[in-house]
């Protein structure tokens, strides 16, 4: 299964074979990936030279490897000198470098493999570690130089990923599907979760003998505890790093202030940037033309990644300044804009500012509308919710100030609210929850959810109770989720298979035996005949502590459910022996 997850390396090798052959390169027509691999980075790097201008690979790839020495060699006499002559330092000897984006991987890799620049640096990409073909290439190319995972190691990473999701240790995604007992991972995010596990194994086996550096593509969360800024990339330190050192933050800020000025003063860079903006705005040019505006995206991406590190460390001023520079370098970058919203602005609750930024992003780049579509509704609702909550705080200020030790909208304070204001507040809290969930703001989501839960108006309608139940489910607060499910089930709108099925799962998580009644109601619908659904119900019943009459009635209604349950009981008894 793992061999079929990612075939990007082999596919790229196959696709560029004809191009390499026509250029006179020694391409192996048998598509031997180990032989052809050295040629691939060179070809892609050559394309980047043509697309981004001759200065780009030198200005981007060489400083990644050789740091300040490479930058000084590139500077013209009339250019502004570096603010810190020692920053960024070169990579350590025999370093291992994870290159994430095309530019961040292929340009340094071409330099090390084919141009004799820092051949001691071992380059690999974290994006393809789950691909058996790619790791086979790595084992041949890096044999004796460092530990590289075997095929069984990749299999263990896949098992770890599935087990962590099933145990609740890792947040589930839509990329993991279990059908007829078979586990499948589809989509980039799911595969990157597995790549993250394998990259952690590579780091653990090699950190004693090699320094590590990373250029981010997708975020790999475990790395954040070890990262520090290092010029265009980040250093992956051998041990966890607590608070970032002040001198490192200053050196990084001064370097990127200088780098941003240098790029925006470069006529060639600005010409490419303006052309990219025109094509995006007018929706003209070929697909290749869009992808070829690589210089803007490459520098913006690296600055965005460092901004994300600052945000994760709680350094919001540094994060906001770094995101701003990333957006200045490439105003068409959706990642710079959306990550700044998610990781900095959303935590401030300034939904009106966020909404204005989304509007601005759509004007600058109409193609962003596809990306902002899912964001607009929740952000607009959260903006209006904040206005409502501020209005209610003002209206009941006297009551709230009497109980300063309590939350603004605690149950004690809500006793003074009119029924109409309680309903307004309940809807506002739910809108605020859903927007904060969208941006990963768990703490603020939990606060608003608890406000809604203490509000008697939340149980007045099915929609409110059901929305709140699903929010608490995502927060893993099973007791509160079950209480709201029970409230929702009292309404006629709950009489659907989807509601009864999900209600059974939520109630079972809370060890609430009302889950049996929900299963009984779900079995009245034809959708319940699905085998996987019956297995889910049997597992729930197998965990029930009380063998009630309701369970016997279920077995009488669906004999096949009883057979599945008995098999699960048998397996449980065998395990206990």
Q: Which terms summarize this structure?
A:
two-stranded antiparallel ribbon; 577 residues; mainly alpha; 63% helix; disordered N terminus; five-stranded mixed sheet; Serine Threonine Protein Phosphatase 5, Tetratricopeptide repeat
What layout of secondary structure does this protein have?
Elements: H1 8-15, H2 17-22, H3 33-36, H4 39-52, H5 55-66, H6 68-74, E1 96-99, H7 102-114, E2 122-124, H8 132-141, H9 151-166, E3 176-179, E4 182-185, H10 188-206, E5 212-215, E6 227-230, E7 233-236, H11 246-264, H12 267-282, H13 287-291, H14 294-312, H15 316-329, H16 334-345, H17 351-364, H18 369-395, H19 397-402, H20 411-414, H21 419-438, H22 442-453, H23 462-474, H24 478-488, H25 497-509, H26 514-522, H27 531-543, H28 549-557, H29 559-576
Parallel strand pairs: 1-2, 1-5
Antiparallel strand pairs: 3-4, 5-7, 6-7
Helix pairs in contact: 4-7, 5-6, 5-7, 9-10, 11-15, 14-15, 14-16, 15-16, 16-17, 17-18, 18-21, 21-22, 21-23, 23-24, 24-25, 25-26, 26-28, 27-29, 28-29
What can you see in these coordinates?
Among the domains are: 2-68 and 82-242, no CATH class; 248-348, Serine Threonine Protein Phosphatase 5, Tetratricopeptide repeat (Alpha Horseshoe), CATH 1.25.40. It has helices at residues 8-15, 17-22, 33-36, 39-52, 55-66, 68-74, 102-114, 132-141, 151-166, 188-206, 246-264, 267-282, 287-291, 294-312, 316-329, 334-345, 351-364, 369-395, 397-402, 411-414, 419-438, 442-453, 462-474, 478-488, 497-509, 514-522, 531-543, 549-557, 559-576, and strands spanning 96-99, 122-124, 176-179, 182-185, 212-215, 227-230, 233-236. With 577 residues, it is mainly alpha-helical. The protein contains 29 helices and seven strands. It is globular and about 80 Å long.
């Amino acid at each position: 299964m793992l061999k079929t997850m990612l075939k990007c390396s082999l596919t790229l090798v196959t696709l560029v074979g004809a191009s390499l052959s026509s250029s006179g390169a020694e391409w192996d027509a048998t598509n031997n990936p180990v032989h052809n691999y050295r040629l691939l980075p060179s070809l892609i790097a050559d394309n980047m030279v043509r697309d981004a201008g001759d200065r780009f690979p030198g200005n981007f790839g060489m400083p990644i490897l050789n740091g300040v020495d490479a930058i000084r060699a590139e500077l013209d006499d009339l250019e502004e000198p570096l603010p810190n002559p020692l920053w960024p330092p070169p990579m350590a000897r025999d370093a291992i470098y994870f290159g994430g984006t095309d530019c961040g991987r292929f340009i340094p890799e071409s330099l090390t493999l084919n141009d004799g620049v820092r051949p001691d640096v071992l380059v690999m990409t974290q994006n393809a570690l789950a691909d058996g073909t790619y790791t086979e290439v790595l084992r041949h190319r890096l044999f004796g130089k460092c530990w590289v995972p075997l095929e069984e190691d990749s299999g263990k990473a896949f098992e770890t990923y599935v087990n962590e999701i099933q145990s609740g240790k890792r947040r589930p995604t839509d990329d993991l599907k279990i059908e007829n007992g078979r586990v499948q991972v589809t989509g980039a995010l799911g595969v990157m979760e597995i790549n993250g596990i394998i990259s952690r194994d590579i780091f653990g086996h090699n950190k004693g003998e090699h320094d590590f550096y990373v250029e981010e593509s997708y975020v790999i969360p475990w790395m954040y505890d070890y990262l520090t800024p290092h010029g265009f990339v980040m250093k992956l330190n051998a041990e966890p790093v607590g608070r970032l050192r002040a001198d490192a933050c200053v050196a990084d800020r001064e370097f990127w202030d200088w780098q941003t000025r240098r790029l925006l003063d470069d006529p060639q860079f600005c010409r490419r940037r303006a052309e990219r903006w025109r094509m995006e705005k007018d929706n003209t040019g070929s697909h290749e033309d869009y992808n070829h505006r690589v210089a803007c995206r490459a520098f913006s991406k690296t600055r965005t990644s460092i901004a994300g590190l600052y945000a994760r460390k709680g350094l919001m001023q540094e994060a906001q300044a770094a995101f701003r520079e990333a957006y200045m370098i490439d105003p068409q970058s959706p990642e710079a804009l959306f990550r700044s919203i998610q990781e900095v602005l959303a935590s401030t609750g300034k939904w009106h500012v966020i909404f204005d930024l989304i509007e601005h992003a759509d004007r600058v780049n109409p193609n962003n509308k596809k990306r902002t579509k899912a964001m607009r509704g929740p952000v607009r609702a959260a903006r209006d919710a904040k206005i409502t909550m501020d209005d209610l705080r003002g209206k009941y200020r006297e009551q709230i100030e009497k109980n300063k030790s309590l939350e603004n909208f605690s149950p004690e304070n809500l006793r003074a609210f009119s029924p109409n204001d309680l309903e307004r507040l309940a809807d506002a809290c739910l809108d605020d929850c859903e927007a904060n969930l969208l941006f990963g703001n768990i703490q603020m989501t939990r606060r608003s959810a608890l406000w809604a839960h203490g509000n008697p108006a939340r149980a007045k309608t099915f929609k409110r109770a059901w929305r709140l139940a699903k929010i608490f489910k995502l927060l893993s607060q099973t007791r509160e989720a079950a209480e709201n499910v029970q409230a929702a089930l009292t309404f006629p709108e709950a009489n659907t298979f989807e509601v009864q099925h999900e209600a059974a799962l939520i109630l079972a998580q809370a060890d609430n035996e009302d889950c049996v009644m929900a299963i009984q109601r779900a079995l009245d619908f034809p959708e319940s005949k699905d085998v996987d659904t019956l297995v889910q119900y049997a597992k729930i019943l197998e965990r029930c502590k009380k063998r009630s009459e309701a369970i016997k009635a279920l077995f009488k209604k669906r004999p096949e459910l009883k057979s599945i349950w008995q098999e699960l009981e048998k397996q449980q008894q065998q395990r206990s022996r």
